[in-house]
Structure formats: C-alpha cells, structure tokens
Design goal:
2 copies of one chain form a homodimer. Chain A is an alpha/beta fold. Chain A has 15 helices and 25 strands.
C-alpha cells in the first residue's frame, strides 16, 4: 500500500467513521452471533420482560448508548437511573436551532441566530438505510424520517487553490472518469492484453459492456457523454443542447479528486440515507419522552467505585453543587473516553490505561444561514460539494427545498486538520469557510449569515468525536468491551461501526446482554 | 453499433424519454437562444405585462403545456380560455388516490382502494434537479417538494426467470462491476497495453487511481469490497462483519444487468430528483387554482378551423352534449397527437399527415398497496429494483418511511412490451406483477393488495405516453414546431426533453413566444 493510498483511506475512514480495526479483530468466543435476517442485520435485542426485576442499574451519560441502555433495561424490568451532565439528552447527537447556546471550553460562547424552522445537526446528520437498529427505534417511536440527500451530481469538486483550478461539477467528474476508464479498458482488450484472462467471447462482451458502462461510441471511444451534462441545456423545438466537453484523463488522475468520485459508493454513504424531519435530535428526544422519570439532567459524575457486589457513583448537581453517592448493582458507562478519564475510579490499571491511552479524534463543523442560491443558481438540492481546502466540504440541506433561506454546512473537517483549523479565532474560521464557498459559488460568499461553529474536542462532556482505531489500539478495544467489576462500558467507539449512532445502539445492546447474562447466572 | 447496443439504448431512451433525434436536429435560424445562467438553463419566459391586451387565445388541453400556456398568456394580458375534456386538469400528470376511477377505453373500470394519504403517480413521478422550468413553477406557486429516491443500493436486479438466477443486490452489482473493471485495467496497464496512451507517470497514477476507484488490494487485485455489503453486518464488540463474496466477472457481462448498473447516471435520473409532497398533481392543481375562471373542464374539442385572421374551435359540453363554436385570434393545441388526429381540422395536408403519421408510444404502470416489507425486511427506502421480466421494475415509495403501509409500483413497462402486456385481462397483469415481486421479495407477493393498472394508450384523451422520435420522424417534429395558420402546437413531444414535464413547459414557452412575436409584429 503506497502512502497515497493509505492517506486516502485514512481520510475516508475518518470521514466515514469506518473502523479500520474491524478486519483484524479477534473474536472472544462468547458464542456465535445469531443472525435473524436474510440481509445480515443484527436481530433486535430481546430481554425477557420482568427479567430485571429488583436489579438496579445506573446508566451514565444520556447519549444514544445511554438512552438505548436505559430504555431497554427498563422494558425488561430493571430499576434504572440515567445520569446526564448536560441540560439536554443526546450527547453528540446535537441539533442547533435559533437560540441554542454553544459554549466551548476555549471560553467562546455563540448563540445561534437562525430563522424559525432551520436547524443544524452539529453531530450525526444521516442514517444509512442498513443501520436497522437505530432505524428500528425511529420506527418504534414514530420519529418521522425523510431522505437525506448525500449525493447531488450537480454539486462540485473544488480543486486546491494553489492549483488554480475551477470547480468541477460532479456529474462531469464521475461520468468522464467512467468514460475514460471504459475506453482504456476497451482499447487494452482490443490489443490482446486480456487474452489470458478472458475468452474471445467474454472479451467481446466486455467491450459491449464498456460501451454501455462508459457511454462509448460504436468504436469504443470516449467522446464525452450526456451523463456529464450540458453547457447549454436542450429546450423546445430546435433548441438542441450543447454538451460539456469531456474532462481530460489527466484531470481525473489528480488524487485530490478521488474522494469526490467514490464517496457515495462507500457502504456508509450509499443511497438511501435518511434523516429525522426537523433535526437529528428527534431521536434522543423520543427516548427522553419515555425516560423522563428516570433521567437526571445537569448531574455530573465525579467518581465510580466498584464494590464487592455493586457499584457506587458519586454525582454532583450542577445547580446546587451538592454531591451524592448513588448505589446500584451495575453501571453502564457511556462517556466518551476523554470525559471518563476525568472521573475518579478504582478501576484496574489496565482499564485506566485503556481509558486514558486511546487517542480521541475530533471534528468541527460550521453552519451558515443563507438565501438558497445553491438551488436557484446551481440546481443543487442537498448533497455535498467536496472541497480541497481546510473546510473539506459544503453540505447543502436535504429538506426545505425552495424555501427562501436555509442552513448550509460550510465546514466538516476532522482529526489534526480540525484541531489546526479551530485553533484560529472563530472569525478567522468563518472567513475561511466563507471564502471557500465563494470559490464554488462566486459572489455568494457575501450572502452567508450568522455562522456557528462546533469543534467537538472543545465541547464540554464530549471532548472529541470518535476513536479512530488502528491496529495497535486493539487491546484497549477488547479490554473495554469486557466489564470492569460491575461496570460495563458502551458507546459507538466499542463497536465495529464507530462514529455512528448504530454502533452506539448495538454497543448498548452488547452491554445490556452481558448484564442480563450475569443477572440470570 | 451492434444490435445489442442499439436495443439497449432504445430501451433506455424509452424509459428516460430521451429524444434520440436531438443530436441530428436542424436549427431553423430563428435566432440564437439566450442563455441566462452559468449552468446552461433556459432563462424564464419574459412577456411584457399588458403586451397581450385585446388578443384572444384558446388553449386546448389542460396538461402541463396547456396550463403553462394559459398561465403565462394571462400574466401578459391576453384573453385566454382553457379547454379540457376531462373533469380534471393535468393530462398525463395524474395522481391516483383512494376513490379515483380509472376508466380505460377497453371497457374496464377500476376504483382505487388505498388508505388515506397514499397515492400513485400514474404518469410523471419525478423531477430532475436540472428541470428548472417546471421546478421554477413549483417555487413560484409554493408546491412543497421532497427528495424522490430514484436509487437505492439496497434494491435488486432480478435476472430472467429462464436463467434461474437469484436477485442480486445493486450494491453488489454496481461495486463488483467497478472492482472487476478496475482490476482488469490495472492489469492491462502493468502489461504495457497502455504504453502508447499514457506516460509512465500517468500509468502509475492510473493504477493508484484504480485501487481507490475499484477498492483494489495493494497488488491491484479485486477481492471484493465493503462497498458491496455484508452477508453478516458488523456489530458491537467482537462482532466483525462477513462481507459478500464478489460476483464473478462473468455474471456482470450479462447484458440484462447493464441497465441496472448505469440507469442512475443517465442525466435524467441522476440525483437529486424531486417530487411534490402528496402527489405529482400538486403541480397542475397549483396552476388550476390560478386559472379557475378561464378553465372549462368536461369540454371536448370537435373541430379546429383556421380562418383568415383567427381560429374557430367547435367544442362540446360532455354533460349536456351541446356544441358551441369559440372564436379567437390564436389557438395553442396541446393534445397528444392520437387525440388531435380525431379532431376535424382544415389544416394543410402536410400538417394532417404529421399529426396522424407519428407513432405514439405507450407505457403501463401497476401500483399495489402493501405492508412496507421492503423497508422492514430488505432495508429498501425508495429506489428501484430492475427486473428482467415483463413488468420491468419495482419502484418503492420515496416518502412515508416507516408507516405501516405504502404504495409500491409493481410494473412500468413501455412500448410494444406494454402493449403486449396490457392485452391481457387486468387479473392476469396483476398476477404477473405479484409473481415478479414475490421473486425479489420471497413470500411477500401474497401481501400485495388492491392493485390498479394504468395503460396510457387506453386512457381516453391521452391515448399514449410520448413520441419516441427516431431520425425519420424529424420532418414531423420540425413541421409541428411551426404554426399552422393561427394554430400553434405545444407539448413535451415538441421539445428536446420528450416525455418530461420540463419539455411540456418549454414547448409552451416556445409557442407563446411565437404568438407574442406575431402580436408584436
């Protein structure tokens, strides 16, 4: 694997939350997973009703893993308390609307100033259709969903400013790339380069296939394609269209472009993707409605101590400052690791080391309110423009089409790039984002209004975005997926679907099932 | 061009309404089109307000072309009457809901029996994002839009029953095809087959590109990809996923499959696609609200006669049977040609010949109400399964996700296939559709309920779907795009965007502009 390819894959992995460790994970021999569905989905968790009677569980943290844990345990009759430090549930599932305060731990405070109805999903913003656990909760709770438009062929790739290139519409990049690839392969086949691999019949079929696949001429040449769009669109009567010239092959061999060409074929980004109507936090709110009587907000966890047959948790009421020790038979800790690292515990050294030793990644997003010029002037309805710039993308809203204004995401960078970017004052970050959008949509930067930024490593009680597991981190992953005394850990970072709500929900199921087995034993 | 390729393209053309004649059209020298937008869109029609004062125009037919004509002419001060034979506006833009009667001219009557809120767009069902004329009217009228999910990677390709194959999930077909193509090309490059085409540097970059593009191994081999999905999805903790095996190259060289691999890259099917919330007929209804006082429904046109300085139109009230002659300065005729062919006219022989000589295509659709098993069991949220069977596709609803039931389209065939299919009794058509759906979704055919079928050549006042222009038909296209006396023709079939509402709207603009020029002269 060359550096280019590795760098590329890491970039993808970070963006997609793809857990690189997955393929190398050792199984723990806890029994083969049961597969219910023909499509390979994990079956819904089934705890016997009443099976938790008389057992007390403290669930620490009301993000998705905590909400799922508390909800499922209660259904099975457990006595549950759900502890959350913030004044809201959801954790990283955070939807920002008019009036939302964003207090970062660098001392900055922002208050969102959006028109009513607008929102910005600062954390997760899409639900892949194969994430059936979290989607199953949406179904169960009646959380209304709509399509999240992750791909628009009218969106752009913006080359690096240093290379001086103009934005390239994705329909051109995607279809011209396929055209060139098809032409080259057809030519190679005709030269005998595939005579060992394919029979004469198959070679002939391959060439016919490539003509269709790449929209080649009868002579198997790529001369451009309607698929790549028009300079002048066709109209009525005699108004024929004027097609875009094909991009030269050389332009497509720029590695900067490659993410834009394939991101929507990554499993995690393939259509159909979904979103709750009105904001991603409709999901945590739906859980919260069902957990109102057991959820304690504004309550920090200061210490977690395993006892012989139970666990003590010291909590502090943020309003009064009063501390209190809660006792339970088990606890499920769903904090991000940098938050858990600040909690006093009597965990074994290897566990403490795992908690403090894993590097937590970050991500930052910027959102703007604006006239929807991307629709009226560029025919972009949702989807993503990929930009070779510090801000990484422009992400257009998937709903509210044709309304006067909308909220557009003008930055979603990750890892070190996000740390470097968010060292700057907010005003400087906003200036960069505005400038990049102005390069893709000339003259429109000036229309962007009321930006807000969320840098996840600066968000109290989050302090990061996800774990970017790499092979050496496996032992921490494995260790934290086992309980420490009466304390079980859960969170997206302990699943093979890191950084996604699906992973958080499945990890919660895993922790619950482990507790249920102990209770039953 | 081999027969295979031509057949394939005709199939595509028919499905997409792509006007094959476009490239060969001769321009008429009426002046270069003005292009307003950087994205090559036709600018909105601009008639001077009051410019039509004192001029009477009869608009015949209240489909999209007629509605657009009447609406724009009125805005410019013309005295307009809009004549429509049906009891509704919209023409082929027809949304079927509970209680809708479908009376076909083969003597059958169906009454849709759907749950409230469900609908079936029997005609157009999607709006490409580059169709800015019809989308512009949606914006102007506040017709609420949502994403139409035209592609789901969880949907299937169903091979021909005679070949005995199982359904293939599209994420596998699409990504394994790309993997194999990438591997073959990388191999050819390494064998020197591209030494003449590319420099050594570019060959090396090409191979790096192909590794990303096709998800190849470090050795540039295709060993399957996560993009093609999992047999067993990954989960929490130790539960790694088990990927699907790659499909063999041979499976992908079956021409039956190729439409499924590329249809969503056809310009007309690329994301983002849109639909009005609640049904496509929200568009004609929005026009109708603004035209109530000039629209006469239930009024058939029996004769059109050019006079020296005007036009007489004989109409018949369908309720009373009473005939009446209307006079105007101009008429715009928007009927489908098979309908116009039945109207008595004094048009010149070449015009009459054009009207009666053009072959009108057809299309048929079947819709079922059902439990949404495609979501709960197959993770399909919208999109299309392509089936190598008489019914051509299964089209899943793009809205109402997670509701208990939905309406799924179980047939959308065209041309001779549709004619042959709809010769059968409805019960036989429904049995075929049910059987095909049952092959893609085993055991679920039995859950399909309350089917309705619309075969467009059997729909009174439509008598077909669109014109499938081929080169020899050019002269009729050109002739009908010119007025005959005081009569102008308009309709999607007179545009380069045949079969689409955009073409109807632009054709209406073309006819209006021609009248405006005559009035101004």
């Amino acid at each position: 694997m060359t550096v280019t390819r590795r760098t590329f894959l890491m970039q993808l992995a970070a963006t997609s939350g793809y857990t690189a460790a997955a393929a190398a994970m050792t199984t723990l021999g806890l029994g083969a997973p049961t597969i219910a569905s023909a499509t390979g989905q994990t079956p819904p968790l089934q705890l016997a009703p009443g099976s938790g009677k008389g057992v007390k569980v403290l669930v620490l943290g009301a993000g998705i893993a905590g909400l799922v844990s508390a909800y499922e345990l209660r259904k099975a009759g457990y006595q549950v308390q759900l502890i959350e430090a913030r004044d809201r549930v959801g954790g990283r599932n955070w939807t920002i609307r008019n009036g939302t305060r964003i207090e970062l731990n660098d001392g900055t405070t922002q208050v969102a100033d959006f028109e009513p109805g607008h929102y910005f999903n600062a954390g997760p913003a899409r639900l892949p259709s194969h994430h059936q656990t979290i989607l199953g909760y949406c179904r169960e709770f009646g959380v209304e969903l709509e399509a999240e438009v992750n791909t628009s062929r009218s969106a752009y790739f913006l080359p690096d400013a240093a290379k001086g290139g103009q934005p390239i519409q994705l329909r051109r990049a995607v279809n011209d790339a396929r055209g060139h690839v098809s032409e080259l392969l057809a030519r190679a086949a005709s030269k005998g380069a595939l005579d060992q691999e394919l029979s004469a019949d198959d070679r002939a079929r391959l060439v016919e296939f490539l003509k269709v696949y790449g929209d080649l001429t009868a002579n198997a040449e790529y001369k451009g394609s309607e698929r790549s769009g028009y300079k002048v669109y066709p109209g009525a009567a005699e108004k024929v269209g004027e097609r875009n010239e094909p991009l030269p092959l050389e332009a497509l061999l720029d590695p900067d472009l490659w993410t834009a060409l394939i991101f929507d074929e990554l499993l995690i980004f393939q259509p159909t993707m979904l979103q709750p109507v009105g904001g991603m936090d409709r999901i945590p709110h739906a859980f919260h409605e069902r957990l109102k009587d057991v959820a304690r907000l504004n309550t920090e966890v200061k210490a977690i101590r395993n006892k012989d047959k139970g666990v003590d948790v010291v909590v502090r009421d943020r309003a009064s400052g009063k501390q209190q020790t809660l006792s339970a038979d088990y606890a499920i800790v769903t904090f991000p690791l940098p938050v858990l690292a600040q909690v006093e515990t009597n965990f074994a050294p290897d566990v403490q080391q795992a908690i403090s030793g894993v590097h937590y990644d970050t991500a930052s997003k910027i959102a703007w309110q604006s006239r929807r010029f991307w629709e009226t002037e560029a025919q972009i309805y949702g989807g993503i423009s990929v930009v070779k710039a510090e801000t990484a993308l422009i992400w257009y809203p998937s709903g509210g089409f044709h309304k006067k204004t909308g909220v557009v995401v003008g930055c979603y960078n990750i890892g070190q790039a996000a740390r470097d970017f968010t060292v700057q004052p907010l005003s400087a970050q906003f200036a960069v984002s505005r400038g990049v959008i102005d390069r893709v949509h000339p003259g429109r930067g000036a229309e962007l209004k009321n930006p807000v930024s969320v840098a996840w490593h600066k968000v109290p009680y989050s302090l990061g975005s996800w774990v970017h597991w790499v092979t050496p981190a496996e032992k921490e992953y494995t260790r934290l997926n086992q309980p420490e005394g009466r304390v079980h850990f859960a969170g997206e970072y302990l699943s093979q679907i890191g950084a996604w709500q699906e992973g958080a929900a499945l990890s919660a199921h895993h922790a619950i099932a482990a507790i249920a087995r102990r209770v039953a034993a």
